[in-house]
Amino acid sequence: MIEITFRPMSVFQSDITLCHSEVVWGETHFSLHLFTATPTEEMNGAGNLMDFLDEPLPDVGTYEDFHTIDWLREKSRDTDRHRKITNRSKESIWEFVKSLLDAWSGWVVMLLIGLLSGTLAGVIDLAVDWMTDLKEGVCLSAFWYSHEQCCWTSNETTFADRDKCPQWQKWAELMTGHTESAGAYVLNYFLYVLWALFFSFLAVSLVRVFAPYACGSGIPEIKTILSGFIIRGYLGKWTLLIKTVTLVLAVSSGLSLGKEGPLVHVACCCGNLFCSLFSKYSKNEGKRREVLSAAAAAGVSVAFGAPIGGVLFSLEEVSYYFPLKTLWRSFFAALVAAFTLRSINPFGNNRLVLFYVEYHTPWYMAELVPFILLGVFGGLWGTLFIRGNIAWCRRRKTTQLGKYPVLEVIVVTGITAILAFPNPYTRRSTSELISELFNDCGALESSQLCDYINNPNMSRPEDDIPDRPAGPGVYMALWQLALALIFKIVITIFTFGMKIPSGLFIPSMAVGAIAGRIVGIAVEQMAYHHHDWIIFKNWCRPGADCVTPGLYAMVGAAACLGGVTRMTVSLVVIMFELTGGLEYIVPLMAAAVTSKWVADAFGKEGIYEAHIRLNGYPYLDQDEFTHRTLATDVMRPRRNEPPLSVLTQDSTTVEDVETLIKETDYNGFPVVVSRESERLIGFVQRRDLILAIKNARQKQDGVVSNSVVYFTEDAPQLPASNPQPLKLRRILNLSPFTVTDHTPMETVVDIFRKLGLRQCLVTRSGRLLGIITKKDVLRHMAQMMNQDPESIMFN
């Protein structure tokens, strides 16, 4: 039986209302219905009613601030857009060219992101280098030169005193003419603290006045945004500008923070900026997040000089939806960013990072024991840091401390500068400290860590110096490093999370590198003095270069960073790209896995997940949900709650809809056949309803408060006295995701994770029972883990 219905737009015979005939052809029945409009229908406009939404309205389908996007709807919209472009491309040459431009727009965006993020990273590196040295002195020949650049250009510098040159003068020498007196030391000390306070005050003031979102690391918020949450302004132009400037100031102030995490935020701001140039990305939040995933990879690429590590970091740590094409585009963006940074060459060593090293000695199986012990230390440090930092940040949120962000930054900066200046290992920038700790002691090294007692009969190549007894400089350096370790452990807990840009990668790596270097020197001296012990006998002969303390520093850095962030694969690849040696992947893997195991034994959350939970962001992590609850236990409304707010398909007036919107704050409403049957038809978004009614009142004549809103294909039969009805079928989602009331919550949670749903309707035999939102799922999960379910603050 095939039924065909005709409803003409114009009417010639007003006395005919229905003509029906049935034709039998073979086994097929054709039933034809010819509808014509009566004079009454023509009078109230139902007969020739047009859907004013035939042309897309601006802002319909967009989202409000602090709301979650509908991934399925965004995917469907992009598929429709692509289908239209493909069909049009066959019509003319110009449409074909436009389709090619649309296809290439993704690669163009990646190119622009790579160029801008690489350029900004190079500028930040150069500025930080100069301003860090500015706290200690100034270059007389060119004040914009850093200490190293100043002495490069000098013709009076000897190799032995390559850090000293007449063109570079410390502040005390410049002001008083003295360099070694107690007064000169005190003056340098005072000016060091003063510069640090000035830089940090300027940074926190700029953040507070111009861009409050520029504070912190940015990675917890980037993770949340990539999972589908909307935070307007977080990736805006002002945030990009202020974060770039204040990042330089914050790192230069000497605080225990790094620029690597904030560089991911900066790169994502670049991505968001270029998305606005192409409607393909600016009008589709799902496509925009593909670009932001690639931008995060570019950010890590320029932060560590590790393009492959950046792609894996985006995949492992921050991205929620990562299709294969995003993988390729991330790789391209990371490549362009790294190439741009390499062209700028901010460190003057033709490398992408300051602490690039190369080792010439292989590692031995017996060394896995100290490597694993460093992994244990990294896991314990990660646990200590996360618990301490979250407790301090919670105190900041819930007490008067949070009302004085400028004072907090000034106090922490003052304490850091006063305690850091006397120790040469805390006075210098953290990147320079890590670089020195990673370095192997060659014949040309003048560091205190390389003050070994040389054998006068030694005649070996420069890159294969045998193990030697430690001199007084090494023992002095060990004491200073031990004090620096305690200082870094404590001060980093209070620094991360303040209202300035603050990264965590570099401080965590510094803690691990210090611990690793201390362990490495200890193992080296044991091997030298006790080479006849059974653990050293097989692989460490007298006069051989057995142990590389710098390698232990690198392994320790990886272990501590892994303990804090819980990264594994991307961490090992980043560290491998830093060293350029495949030979040391096994020690790095052993330390990274051990640190994750140890840290996971005390808590599954990394620092970014902990901050997401502290801030109440609606982020669904990947942990398994193992509780035996059903959808009916979680859905709204619960017992003793008012019934679910719904719209009917053809009997609700404009006034009813506006009253419902005014009296509730729900993000959308189910549409049912009638309130008696509760048979589900579809789901309509609150924002789309508001915009549709507003535009209808402006563009469609006769729409008043008493106008009936209908979501069916055909207009309802209405009396002649009724005003013109309003058709809103175009904004109705006819295929909302539904589950039955007996669906296990384990399945529901999995659906929300993998499909990125905003809400899910609960039915029984097609009859609507309730609704489950992402917020309901998060509250339920928190309740099952004995946490406060009301900590999920956002919609």
UniProtKB/TrEMBL annotation:
Keyword Cytoplasm: no
Predominant place of localization: membrane
PROSITE patterns according to UniProt: CBS
Transmembrane portions of the chain: 104-128, 189-211, 231-251, 263-279, 291-315, 364-386, 406-425, 477-497, 504-523, 551-576
GO terms of molecular function: antiporter activity; ATP binding; voltage-gated chloride channel activity
This protein's GO CC annotations: early endosome; endosome membrane; Golgi apparatus; plasma membrane; synaptic vesicle
Organism field: Pygocentrus nattereri (Red-bellied piranha)
Family indicated by similarity: Belongs to the chloride channel (TC 2.A.49) family.
Name under which the protein is recorded: Chloride channel protein
CBS domain segment(s): 635-699, 732-790
Chaperone listed as a keyword: no
